Amino acid sequence: MTPAARVQAAIEVLDQVRSGKSAEQALTGWGRRSRYAGSKDRAAVRDHVFDALRCRRTYAALGGGETGRGLMLGALRASGEDPDALFGSTPHAPSPLSEQERGAGHKPLEGPEELDMPDWLWPSIIDSLGDQATAYARSLKTRAPVHLRVNLRKVTREAVQAELARDSILTQPHPAADTALQIIEGARRLRQSRAYLDGRVELQDAASQAVVQALPLRDGMRVLDYCAGGGGKALAMAARASVTLFTHDAASQRMRDLPVRAERAGVRFQALQTADLERNGPFDLVLCDVPCSGSGAWRRSPEGKWLLSPSRLRELSAVQSEILAHAAELVTEEGVLAYATCSVLSQENSAQIGEFLVQNRQWRAVFSRAWMVPDGSDGFFSAHLTRI
Ligand SMILES: C[S@@+](CC[C@H](N)C(=O)[O-])C[C@H]1O[C@@H](n2cnc3c(N)ncnc32)[C@H](O)[C@@H]1O
């Protein structure tokens, strides 16, 4: 495909996203209809689409609208390219620009438009992050790095780096966690590499690993991952200590990939239904990696930035406090209740913990930390609570 044909494909996908499809669905549909597209074409179209979703407001301002054409026109103008050299250039290119399109567009306004943030949310971001708010918003305009978690039970970080390098996958240690590597070249080869296939490395953001590294895990503990989802943190916990691992998720189908991933990593676990939690408790450590806005991970999932609404945020806060209240009942007298979000909003982080401590005077926070997107990982928050 020519560069212009890739832009036309991105325009079509972005129009479908605008009419309600998720980016993944729209890209999969385009991929199925476009058998002629090679792997490089698919990657390029995907990059165009996700870049446009990360920078939706600035591209729409520069391109004169939120249609696929408006966004890609804005993208070209943002990178200083002449759109007329591409629109109408080849048979599969986007059709030539109209006079109206040529004259449309404005320089993004300073503030949330220029920072690609929803207007309604920007004050909460400033409240939460203070003078780091702008750096956070700017980081979200860029692509997320690819991080690996090294399974230290199977291999050292240095040894697996050397092995990956032989498969032309170049990495460097990430400072957030002693298990973390950042891929600097060859990420697309990872899934075929021996180190990945036999569970010595897993894909996991460095801050997500740091959340697990901070947990007071010890051999012999009974540990419950209350919101296990795909099991990223459950597997990371099992790799740090010989624990008896239990997993749970309100939507148990979210754990469907966990058995295969656990087998690759050589981890045993028992999945529990909600009704079975009490009977199997109490647990020495209960991790609640709660559903949240995902605002720490919007580089990776930029649609989330535009889909979040005040009412959705209120719903999420309510679910988070319900989870904390229920999970607290499952912790042993001396045990630890750990809370984590991939959010940067204090409403979901410190305020949520503060509210729990006001309602539950017998608990106190013994640890609390935030990881920031400008430091090169997803944004995360975690707190550990114990009974007084
Ligand atoms: C942030 S994700 C968990 C990610 C996972 N821990 C990991 O590291 O891969 C949050 C999970 O919480 C689950 N969830 C939502 N509401 C819940 C509830 N009331 N109780 C337990 N889990 C819930 C969701 O289905 C989702 O899988």
Overview of the molecule:
It is a single chain. The chain is built from 17 helices and eleven strands. The longest helix is centred in the C-terminal third of the chain and has 19 residues. It is globular and about 70 Å long. By secondary structure, the chain is α/β, with parallel strands linked by helices. It has a seven-stranded mixed sheet with strand order 7-6-5-8-9-11-10, with helices on both faces. Strands 2-3-1-4 form a four-stranded antiparallel sheet. The chain starts with a helix and ends with a strand. It has three domains: 106 residues, no CATH class; 58 residues, Alpha-Beta Plaits (2-Layer Sandwich), CATH 3.30.70.1170; 174 residues, Rossmann fold, CATH 3.40.50.150. The mean pLDDT is 97. The protein binds S-adenosylmethionine (SAM). The site of S-adenosylmethionine has 16 residues, from α12 and α16.
